[in-house]
Amino acid sequence: MSTRNEGSADLGGNVSTGTYSQSYAGPVTLSGADRVLTASLVNFQNTVVGGGNSLNVAGPATFGATVSGLDDLSVSGNASVAANVTGTGSQTFTGRVNLTGDATFTGTSGSFSGGLGLLVYGLIAGGAKVPEALEIGRQLRARLPGRG
Q: Which among 36, 50, 92, 140 is least surrounded, fewest beta carbons within 10 Å?
């Protein structure tokens, strides 16, 4: 399933495509309640706005732009993150997280149990350098080489 143009998508229900991928070219808004997306890959090419709802991705995910307004975020597969991820609850990544841009993770707690991509320099989590600190508290800040 994909949105072919940059039109927005309002996810008013859970979406399961089984072994097929989901790709969203335009901005995505979660409305009405917490959402579960199940796919071989969920690809967000634009912003994701949570509207105070939680997002659970059952499978791998790509976040190509800012993620904001979520309560909890959970990704059970590998994830690629290119920009800030902001929420009011926990952020749980059970697969490997590859950072493809400057990213700040903000929430009440976070877990990167699958590890972080090695393309980062100066990554700080709760005052300790990763990989010593895979459990984070309020904020994680990452900068890629050559990006101010």
A: 36
